[in-house]
Predict the 3D structure of the following.
Amino acid sequence: MSDPSIHPSAVIDPGAEIGAGTRIRPFVHVSAGARIGAGCVVQANVSIVDGVTLEDDVMIGPTAVFANVHHPRAHVPPRSAPAATLVKRGATIGANATILCGATIGEYAFVGAGAVVRHDVAPHAVVVGVPAGWIGWMCRCGERLPHADGTGRMTCARCGDVYRTKDRGVALDI
């Protein structure tokens, strides 16, 4: 993979980690305690704050927001360590979505534009709204999965991958 591509208007604090092939768009700020994996895309006007980790191949839409303090007050200093937020491999966070600290966004999950995520999001889940709520499942190729058939299986119309329901979620049926 190639070096990261970072727009000249982006601010990358010393100590921030950015993986190979990642593209950082205009007016992005990556804090010293943030980690961004390989092959990610971070669109314009996003701050990746301390305590946020983006695994490989994550897409962050424009003006998405990450919070890293549970109880913010101007007159109270924050705790010494920011609350950790993890966005797992292949996940997408839509434009203007807000991710509150401490949440884990599962692999290949899809957070819709404008959603407010207060809790963990299951792998492959599609969540929308305020607060974010589950509306379906997403294939790793980005196609919405159909409802499960009588055997609990879902086949992607785009790539043909087959998923099955498992423990309140879905998994690739290998």
In short: The first strand starts at residue 5 and ends at 6. Residues 153 and 164 are 4 Å apart (CA to CA). The two ends are 28 Å apart (CA to CA).
